[in-house]
Amino acid sequence: MKKIVILISFLILSLVSFGQNVRIKNDVFEVLYSQSLEQPLIIKYRSTNRPTNVNRGAMDFYKEVNIKTSDAEDYKANIYDKGHGAPAATFSDNMENLKQTFSYLNCIMQDKYLNRGEWRMLEEQIRKWDDTENITVLIKTFFDTPVKRVATGAAIPSHLQTHIYFEKQKKWKCYVFLNEKPKFSWEELEMVCETKDHKF
User: Fold this and answer.
1) Closest by alpha carbon to 82, among 154, 186, 9?
2) What pLDDT, in 10s, does the model give residues 27-45?
3) Does domain 2-198 match CATH 3.40.50.720?
4) pLDDT digits (tens, 9 = 90+) for 72-84
């Protein structure tokens, strides 16, 4: 295991390499990223009732130096959105935080109906919950065997899990989403939380 410190966009990120997987932490999120799949495996962030001070405007995702991620070509002419892990709206308190959410390290290949539908609605609910207590969120992606990919190479997650920790109440809520057009509301997709699944 090799540990180095790199400077990206004037922000210091800690990068630990595990073969094709890298683990990176910045001021907004922590991610375990698969360079072979070109997708995040786990994303962790805290939702802390930050004020909204800036707007995303025409901001788009950007690649990081020396890390193999998905890119704009992977999302062309298909049904997949560049889905945020750590949401842009949660980190719109300043432009530096907002920009970090647009790293491809934080980008999940999501069915557009999921990303713009029940996934977005759960993100909004988390921001309501954080009005009364801080929330820690773990997002996990899962893949079929064999792995399905778009023509340009990025892997397509089969399903995603969102694990939500209420820091004051010291309790978890967990949800599972198939990476397709939702047939159920996010409330109906609650799953049993397993303690072993909350480690990162």
Assistant:
1) 154
2) 999 999 999 999 999 999 9
3) no
4) 999 999 999 999 9
